[in-house]
């Protein structure tokens, strides 16, 4: 095989593996190899950890995990002929002293055998990344040679080797060692601005080294994470010549020569911000249901507010309106307009509604607890909390009974300040909007309603209320959502300290209150359900906070 | 200062800092410095991260954290005269390119100034450890010199440098570079066998290098972790010459010359296994309450079973019997003997009892849900689950109302196989026995009752039951606890794969069932409350598992 052979063809397989489903993933990989072969591909590329799914976490520590990996690599290698397959997979090596080291690799298969392990050099270990827990770094990255063709093969983080982040400049090293082009296999989590960041880095490399860059990302939902695909090929002129689909599997074959031509092979239409948000959430939730092999009967408590309305809409996109069951759970504090509004919502969405008043139960509870200081007249937090908890109980009952799952409906602002009742409105198997601040949610609704009214205007225009006591409004206990969200973004997403937030001109009293609410609600978040990560700092695995501490940042 | 000056004195300060409480910790450190000075100490040593507490997690990423650390180090340095203070603290260094690196250090203070940063070489990043997320490794450990005295100063993991774990053999390097003795400052989490492991490693080093070893550990509870103190001094002859207290602050001063003598300076009496378990749990819980500055009113749902009984007993040890409120929540499925037994328990413990029957509420719920397929006659999981959820709701109400917290009472066996109702018996701020398997719990009870019957025999001898339907017994749906716990220990604690467990002679059907239960209940554990880590693999932060996956280990 010769670099001068410009008719040499490369296939990129943007697949959606299921974590730990070795049979499913192997079958898929072999299908893509065969499809690539039908397209006369010489080099067939799969994303990072395509064989196992990303990230196996502690599953990788079980001996049978290694056994499965090694067995399946051989099984795949067996179907590989004279083409070269580059497959993302872990590789297990024993030291002389018997200790095992695991590398995150591009495994090269050729003529029925493993011919090389290209090891990841830079291991991300921040936010949702925990690779140093499992993998060993490779401190000597080298290009992979096929005849006189030198491929600057690198794994995901290896391309994020900019000044100040890592000592080993992988792309530069590969360039110096004679790579003809760069090929990055990734499992790169989606966030709203991520594709822009990726393109920025890739274009910087191409500009600096004057060599083409092929970027292949995985696609699919995995717990709180969305892998968005959107693989790209940038030619030596630093133009994008191929884009792959966002949020779905995709496949492309092109000639090596195309990397040095200006012909655009494939263009994807641009996705607007809020469509992207919707696509990310729906892919994540669809895969959550499919990969866990659970029911698609979705139970959502509808309050007449915007959070549950948007959640119900998003659910219909994934499971269809016939599988979404709205549940109204009115109490004596529920305004009649709430019922009117949610009836309109149900009509607009075409979902079914169950109406279960918690009034009788609440009275029974009042009577039962009266001897235990229940205050019928003076409603405090304890009396407020029993209402969402009764609702949570009924929602979980319906889920159990109808073989469905409950969706929790808290938004990022609420979750941040703990404006929710644990075991009440927080119950559920999944939360779809937990990484969207309330003020952003209004913009999302505006987008959802772009062609026709789906979320009723009455819901949008109503002042937010938990309806746990008479005349209650969120603004009784929280600052205005725009102000709240501005400060939360600085404190949570940008990790600014209080003094830095104050420097931006916010009022001390408000900032103090918000930071204190965030800090003291860590215990609630520790028991909350997984959401869908849309930002660079969502609540969940990427934000590791102690519960017990006395630091005020 | 000269090594030949054998009258030189070393003070070890085994303190209990509060995470992120810079004022509290600084005051404490200065007090211990003054106490050491009154004892004519020349070298005053504090444990790993004594200034901040272990581990700050993402709090360390806030700029104000660095500011506080640097401010407080200067404040402490200001009180230091001609003595040398070795203080565990993070140190922040800027690279030429402006990027920040954080090292986990022994900071040496002398004559009002910072004179050296001894950087940790080996960063643990497994189980509950996440140091590579925050810290940079030091690949060139060197002893710290005071005149001709060469101190082999190392931080925690640096001593666990045995074959097969790390490339850098820190102790050996320090020996080769002329250390006169080793001084390890640690924040080492307790587990039942940990002290034995530590002694094993220390004695191996002393035997190999023929030099004394001083091991100083921190003490205190931090979220799920217990730091047990138990610092030790081993002389050049490889004998323990000083032991410090377990589970409390302690202080010792000794002469450098003592390291080369066989005089035993201090002995601690041995703690039995179950006393150690109790001490670890009570320290953790005491610090949870104190450091979070929360109430000491404890609410516990009492079922008449062993789990809630032991939890109530442990709570009395921490907050006193006058602050523990037992709550009986009988339903129509509650046997009369349950009430008799728990009344006896309450009497034995001297705690108060509230009796709140959920019968009426349950009937109200039956009636309400009848139109939604509630089956009064045929009790399935949905109908069973509403009972613990009603109980959870009432317990949380009482906690809110009485300004208390609920203790969750699941044991490790139950948590492992998901034999619990989410938002029901799992509610609470803390679980004290979640790292104790059921069969071990019986042994603990035997110890608790060693002098007199505290947990009534009737509770101990009763067959475990959830009492959610007539005649229900745990053994209807679970294997015998001894068998269950044996298999769980192999699968969870030892991380053996199924084929390895089968090789030990267990029945395929049983093993399959148990593994499948563990796997499919990851989603429950993800929403469960923190427990107290007693083993090397407890559920919680040290066991990172995906929810979505299809791997069967």
Characterization of this structure:
2 copies of one chain form a homodimer. Chain A has 553 residues and is an alpha/beta fold. Helices cover 36% and strands 18% of the residues of chain A. Chain A has 17 helices and 19 strands. Chain A has helices spanning 22-38, 63-77, 170-176, 194-209, 273-291, 306-319, 336-349, 359-370, 381-402, 412-417, 438-448, 457-461, 474-477, 481-493, 498-503, 508-520, 522-525, and strands at 9-14, 43-45, 84-94, 100-110, 113-119, 144-146, 149-155, 181-186, 213-217, 219-222, 225-228, 232-234, 240-243, 250-255, 298-302, 324-328, 352-355, 405-408, 430-431. Chain A has a 6-stranded mixed beta sheet with strand order 5-4-3-2-1-14, with helices on one face. In chain A, helix 1 (22-38) links the parallel strand 1 and strand 2 (43-45). The longest helix of chain A has 22 residues, at 381-402. Chain A is elongated. In chain A, 54% of the residues are buried. Chains A and B meet through helix 2, helix 5, helix 8, helix 9 and helix 15 of A and helix 2, helix 5, helix 8, helix 9 and helix 15 of B.
């Amino acid at each position: 095989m010769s670099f001068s052979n410009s008719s040499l063809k490369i296939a990129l397989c943007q697949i959606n593996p299921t974590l730990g489903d070795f049979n499913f993933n192997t079958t898929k990989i072999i299908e893509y190899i065969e499809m690539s072969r039908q397209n006369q591909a010489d080099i067939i590329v799969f994303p990072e950890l395509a064989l196992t799914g990303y990230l196996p976490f502690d599953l990788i520590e079980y001996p049978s995990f290694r056994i499965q990996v090694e067995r399946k690599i051989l099984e795949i290698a067996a179907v590989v002929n004279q083409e070269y397959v580059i497959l993302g997979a872990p590789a297990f090596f024993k030291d002389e002293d018997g200790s095992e080291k695991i590398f995150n690799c591009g495994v090269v298969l050729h003529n029925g055998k493993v011919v090389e392990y290209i090891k990841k050099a830079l291991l991300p270990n921040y936010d949702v990344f925990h690779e140093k827990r499992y993998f060993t770094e490779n401190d000597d990255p080298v290009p992979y040679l096929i005849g006189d063709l030198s491929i600057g093969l690198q794994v995901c983080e290896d391309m994020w080797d900019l000044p100040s982040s890592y000592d080993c400049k992988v792309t530069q090293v590969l360039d110096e060692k004679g790579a003809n082009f760069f090929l990055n296999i990734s499992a790169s989590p989606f966030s709203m601005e991520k594709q822009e960041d990726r393109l920025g880095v890739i274009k910087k490399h191409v500009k600096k080294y004057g060599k083409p860059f092929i970027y292949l990302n995985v696609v699919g939902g995995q717990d709180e994470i969305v892998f968005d695909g959107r693989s790209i090929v940038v030619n030596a002129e630093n133009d994008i010549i191929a884009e792959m689909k966002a949020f779905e599997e995709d496949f492309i074959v092109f000639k090596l020569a195309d990397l040095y031509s200006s012909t655009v092979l494939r263009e994807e239409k641009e996705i607007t911000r809020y469509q992207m948000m919707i696509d990310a959430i729906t892919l994540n939730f669809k895969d959550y249901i499919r990969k866990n092999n659970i029911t698609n009967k979705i139970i959502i408590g509808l309050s007449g507010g915007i959070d549950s309305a948007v959640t119900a809409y998003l659910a219909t996109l994934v499971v269809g309106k016939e599988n979404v069951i709205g549940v109204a759970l009115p109490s004596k504090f529920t305004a009649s307009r709430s019922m009117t509004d949610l009836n309109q919502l149900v009509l607009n969405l075409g979902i079914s509604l169950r109406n279960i008043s918690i009034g009788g139960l609440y009275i029974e509870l009042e009577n039962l607890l009266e001897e235990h200081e229940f205050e019928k007249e003076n409603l405090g937090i304890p009396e407020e909390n029993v209402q969402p908890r009764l609702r949570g109980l009924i929602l979980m009952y319906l889920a159990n009974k109808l073989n469905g799952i409950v969706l929790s409906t808290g938004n990022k602002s609420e979750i941040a300040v703990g404006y929710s009742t644990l075991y009440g409105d927080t119950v559920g198997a999944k939360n779809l909007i937990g990484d969207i601040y309330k003020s952003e949610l209004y913009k999302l609704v505006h987008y959802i309603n772009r062609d026709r009214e789906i979320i009723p205007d009455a819901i949008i225009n109503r002042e937010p209320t938990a309806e746990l006591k008479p005349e209650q409004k969120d603004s009784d206990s929280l600052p205005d959502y725009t102000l709240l969200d501005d400060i939360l973004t600085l404190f949570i997403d940008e990790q600014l300290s209080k003094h830095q937030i104050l420097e931006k001109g916010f009022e001390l009293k408000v900032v103090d209150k918000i930071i204190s609410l965030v800090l003291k609600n860590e215990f609630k978040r520790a028991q909350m359900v997984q959401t869908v990560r849309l930002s660079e700092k969502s609540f969940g695995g990427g934000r590791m906070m102690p519960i017990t501490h006395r630091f005020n940042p």
